[in-house]
Fold Pyroglutamyl-peptidase 1.
Amino acid sequence: MDANAKCTILVTGFGPFLTHTVNASWEAVKELQQLWKNSVEFSDVKLVVEEIPVSYDYVSDYIPQLWEKHRPSIVLHVGVSQEAKSLTIEQHACSNGYERVDICNKCPDETDVEYKILETEIDVKELCNNVNENFERSGRKACLSVNAGRYLCEYIFYQSLCIEPAKTLFVHIPDFDKYSSEQTANGLYDILCYLIRNLELS
């Protein structure tokens, strides 16, 4: 399949941090990978998944490498939020203000970082509406957000937006008590279906 793939999709989830000893985002991404293997519809689309440690240094070093290695048509970053009640599609990310320490007890050095806000160029309103129109079939809802939390979730989103805002999306997902990994994976699958169909039309 890889040799004949017409495009590559990169999806990331996060590893353990704080009380999230099993991170719902990575569990959902693993479920998504299984769904993809069984999909006939997108057999010519290569899905690459990566578990990302909750580390600022790792993200700033490794995310550009992933873009360079895979040259993806879409990058979907996934993170867990205790506040999320549905699939929460983030619209923008900030360059600085990251004062919460990561799993290495570090924050990014923002000494020379100019304050910027970068927005995804994906039509998130249309995407959100599309997910909600399919609610009766999928059982999952989506909403839009302008606050990605100023932690690793927003940080990874910002790093990818710096590279290619037209191909970058971030989705916060609820924890296990609201959606199972399988439910979330189906929601992420719906999002990717929409994005791939839009790629084909453009």
